[in-house]
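Researcher: We are triaging several targets before committing to wet-lab work. For this one, the compound of interest is nicotinamide-adenine-dinucleotide. I'm pasting the protein sequence and the ligand SMILES. What I need is the predicted three-dimensional arrangement of the protein with the ligand bound, expressed as structure tokens, so it can go straight into our comparison scripts without reformatting.
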Amino acid sequence: MADKKELRIGLIGYGFMGRTHTNAYKRLGDFFPELKHKPVLKVVCARNKERLQAFADQWGYESIETDWRAVVARDDVDAIDICTPNNMHAEIAIAAAEAGKMILCEKPLARTVAEAQPMVDAVEKAGVPNTVYYNYRRVPAVTLAKQLIDDGKLGKIFHYRANFLQDWTISPELPQGGEGLWRLDNDAAGSGVTGDLLAHCIDTAMWLNGGIKDVSAMTETFIKERVHTGTGEVQKVGIDDACIFHCHFDNGSLGLFESTRYARGHKALYTFEINGEHASIKWNLHDLSRLEYFDHRDESIERGWRSIHVTDGDQPYMDKWWVPGLSIGYEHSFVHQVADFFKSIEDGTPCSPTFKEAQETQKVCEAVLNSAKSKSWQETGVDW
Ligand SMILES: NC(=O)c1ccc[n+]([C@@H]2O[C@H](COP(=O)([O-])OP(=O)(O)OC[C@H]3O[C@@H](n4cnc5c(N)ncnc54)[C@H](O)[C@@H]3O)[C@@H](O)[C@H]2O)c1
């Protein structure tokens, strides 16, 4: 490791994503030894000093800051990693770009298209490397789906279907806002399941199947009022609890998407299925190492759905891990994203999805919400 160039990380926010990203930085050098850079856990930032210091000690950060502006201003930080709630992404990213820092930002890029645009402008003006953690692209079975589609195995695509189902907000007693519950507060989150869950489905869908042209959507807020943690008052709930939309893709295929936090029994069931003229593929997050594949060109007597266990060295990313037959998990998608980001710096190429690409997903999310509100079809304006 001695001759590697340091890439000094400033992590803002140490919650769920702060841990997955830190884990990725810690694993990187061991499993991607060819990289010329090594991450250095320089500083982590959040507001509660005591808990932050405990996190820094546990995970191995060299220092702490309680104001993110101090992290952005530090000369000993090369890259800012944004793991805060959605309402803070824009301000931090713009300041980081202006300070010439590389930026790795959590999804969704921002709460709205208008809020995201200056972020895109700022990274492009500063010319700083940037990426957004739509990490599901880098689950090996999902990356393999991309490979099969790009190889033409499916032929012309007719249908794209995706769901992202959870069940954790069914209780009306759950407050909105505050630690762990900012996703229920529209000011912090920008939307409900659309920006939180469907954004993932939309990013994967456009990556696999091209741009989404127009959408028709409906949303529902099942619990209309909740206590707000910040004010202590019962307040109107502004987020969408559930969202269903259908759409046209630029390639002529039809899309059908559903997300909810009211599907009792489902914790994080992200699934997609794609039907083409020759073949179909299916994937689900609960069995993330498998890609289901049906090819109509197989001999009819043995034709059927194959369950491809994506663990072999010639399948995406799997040469980096164990031996054929042994699975990897959720956390590895973040290791892959960080590895690809480091590689992109070394190659001088963009690490997809960039802020610009994530802005296209933002446009679809916004068109979905506008469609539900206006009860009309909406053009997305996506340029994929
Ligand atoms: N890629 C994915 O699959 C995925 C999964 C979960 C969350 N996310 C995204 O990651 C982001 C964070 O989500 P999370 O689940 O980790 O949230 P979280 O609530 O677990 O963590 C948020 C962190 O932000 C910190 N924070 C809040 N305000 C701050 C401030 N003013 N200054 C510094 N730190 C502050 C909190 O202390 C906390 O550590 C969100 O944008 C979310 O949409 C992405």
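Researcher: Any quick observations?
Model: The radius of gyration is 21 Å.
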